[in-house]
Amino acid sequence: MVIRLEQPNEYREVENLTREAFWNVYRPGCTEHYVLHQYRTNPDFIPELDFVLEEKSIIGHIMFSKAELLHDDGHRTSSWTFGPISIHPDYKRKGYGLKLLQYALGKAREMGIGFLCMEGNIEFYKHAGFDLASKFNIHYHSEPKDAEVPYFLAQELIPGWLESNDITEACYCPPKGYFVADDNPEAFEAFEATFPKKEKAFQEGQLPQFCHSFGMPLNRIEDCGTNADGSTNFNYCQNCYNDLDK
Q1: 138, β-bridge pairs
Q2: Which 3 state secondary structure label does DSSP give 164?
Q3: Is the Cβ–Cβ distance between 71 and 77 less than 8 Å?
Q4: Which entry of 5, 52, 174, 223 is 20 to 30 Å from 59 by CA?
Q5: pLDDT of amino acid 244
Q6: Parallel, antiparallel or unpaired: strands 152-156 and 131-132
Q7: Is the peptide bond before 175 cis (omega within 30 degrees of 0)?
Q8: In angstroms, rounded to a whole number, what is the distance separating the alpha carbons of residues 110 and 57?
Q9: Which H or E run includes 101?
Q10: Main-chain dihedrals φ then ψ at residue 53, nearest 5 degrees
């Protein structure tokens, strides 16, 4: 097993890996490969923490991003986040993800990165030292301040970093780069069309999906609209798309 920096000639391979790793996991299809594709030219991207994991071929990847903590008086403190972290489906649940993450966290600590916020499953990330962000008095931007948000996690990579930066409470919002597929749906669809076609599907454990126009829940194929070519539109309900191609 080798963990090393990603090389530019591997970008497409890693994007395809990311697509395979996230397909139908959190939603029908996925957008993480487009986030990665766009992030490499984003000023928040940290190329020194852009790692691949090799086991004969590339089977894993992780990237880090600059972020910010927002304080009640309006000032901001630099912080950091990471993701997507991808492991090829054939190698999941074999310890590769944790090894890749622990290696990357060690390199981040060496660079002076003191505090990370991220969204994820505490049952996995607790093994890498993460805990609920609310225990650090860091709040998630879209949740009430007093909420204990189960998917919003944090870790003080450098002990005492929060205290040394006079941070007793703050709010975190993911960097805008993570919303690029929602902000540019046509560009995302054009990018997605350059990959081999895969079937989107609803699966147990996915995040709740809602119509982008009316906000109606989309839980089954029957809830979704139909495009002019007869394919399912997973972003809009039947009221928006009924054999129409908007």
Answers
A1: 170
A2: helix
A3: yes
A4: 174
A5: 47
A6: antiparallel
A7: no
A8: 27
A9: helix 96-110
A10: -115, 125
> Would the pTM of this model clear 0.90, i.e. be above it?
no
pLDDT tens digit string along 76-90?
A: 999 999 999 999 999
Residue 84 CB partners (closer than 8 Å, separation 6+): 18, 21, 22, 32, 35, 36, 61, 62, 63
> Angle at the Cα of 45 (from 40 to 49), degrees rounded to 5?
100
Q: How many CB atoms lie within 10 A of CB 127?
A: 13
- Report the DSSP pairing between strands 170-172 and 232-237: unpaired
The token duo for 221 is 């194929």
CB 67 within 8 A of CB 81: yes
Tally of residues, the chain: 246
Angle CA 19–4–7, to nearest 5: 65
DSSP structure class, residue 47: G
